[in-house]
Design goal:
60% of the residues lie in helices and 1% in strands. The protein is an all-alpha fold.
Length: 311
């Protein structure tokens, strides 16, 4: 019986973590007594939802690269002659997503540790606090598990969590948010504009204009939907503070599932707003607009170009 329970627990949590679902068979999630200091379990689950949030094309791309690399090493060891072969190169999409994911995890882990080592992470050892900071950093990018009491988190950390929730996981993955590639393209475009460049470039490649335009459209629409959601929540939930409702709205839009013990106390109207935001966030407002708005049929003309004063 205990072996079967252990296998079921492992399989259930492995699938839930990889799929960024955040569901647990434990009543207190991973904050349950007996599990809240199990750092090995926390690190394994965090690694699974980072892996699941990368996106299937990226995982396959990295797998193919590693397979070529290992074959290359074995051949060079077995062959007397020097075997020179460049392994299959990781494509631009994978490079951008892997670099952005790593930088976001690093930023989240370090900043959460610095803000919370004497706060929400006080009961943990130094090693444990770093593991928990990594877990929270990865978790807020759409996983939804819980290893600490969220109500103990300080306001600066909540702001960092909101930022990480908004970005979310990567395209073609099990996570939500505006996606890492969207955020990366926007940042790269800002850098190229400040440098006076007319093109957005990275790793000796030029990013297509359509991708840049799409990224900024997704960012603008996400902020509009979240802003409208927060505005409506403030109206229907006058007894709750703005930061709590903002956290709730960003969590819903990015389908994270985190809450500062607020979701059960929402009114029926508040729950409907959260449901709508979860649906829009999962499907993407941009995709909804494409489905609703009539497509342009004629492209064989161009108007004269004019520059508009921006700032």
């Amino acid at each position: 019986g205990s072996v079967n329970k252990g296998i079921f627990f492992s399989v259930f949590h492995a699938i839930s973590a990889f799929c960024n679902a955040g569901f647990s068979t434990l009543s207190g999630n991973l904050y349950e007594p007996g599990y809240q200091f199990n750092y090995g379990l926390h690190f394994t689950i965090a690694s699974l939802f980072v892996f699941g949030g990368l996106g299937f094309p990226i995982v396959y791309n990295v797998y193919t690269y590693l397979k070529h690399l290992i074959k290359n090493i074995i051949r060079s060891l077995l062959s007397k002659e020097k075997f020179h072969h460049t392994p299959w190169v990781i494509n631009l999409n994978s490079r951008i997503i892997l670099a952005t994911t790593f930088l976001l995890l690093l930023f989240g882990t370090v900043s959460i540790y610095l803000f919370e080592y004497d706060g929400a992470l006080k009961g943990h050892s130094t090693f444990g606090a770093w593991i928990e900071a990594f877990f929270i950093s990865a978790n807020n990018r759409t996983a939804g598990f819980n290893t600490i009491d969220v109500s103990l988190i300080s306001a600066p950390t909540l702001m960092i969590c909101i930022f990480l929730m908004w970005i979310g996981a990567s395209p073609a993955s099990t996570g939500g948010g505006i996606k890492t590639s969207t955020f990366a393209i926007a940042v790269l475009n800002i850098i190229s504009l400040t440098k006076g460049k007319k093109r957005t470039e990275i790793y000796r490649r030029e990013i297509g204009e359509h991708s840049v335009r799409r990224a900024f459209a997704i960012i603008a629409l996400s902020l509009f939907v979240i802003g409208l959601g927060i505005f409506l929540l403030v109206i229907v939930e006058p007894d709750k503070d703005l930061l709590t409702l903002s956290f709730e709205a960003f969590s819903a839009f990015s389908t994270v599932g985190q809450s500062i013990n607020t979701t059960p106390n929402l009114s029926s109207a508040g729950k409907v707003i959260i449901i709508a935001m979860m649906f829009i966030g999962r499907v993407s407002m941009f995709s909804l607009l494409i489905a609703i708005v009539k497509r342009e049929k004629y492209y064989n003309y161009r108007y004269p170009k004019e520059e508009i004063l921006i700032n």
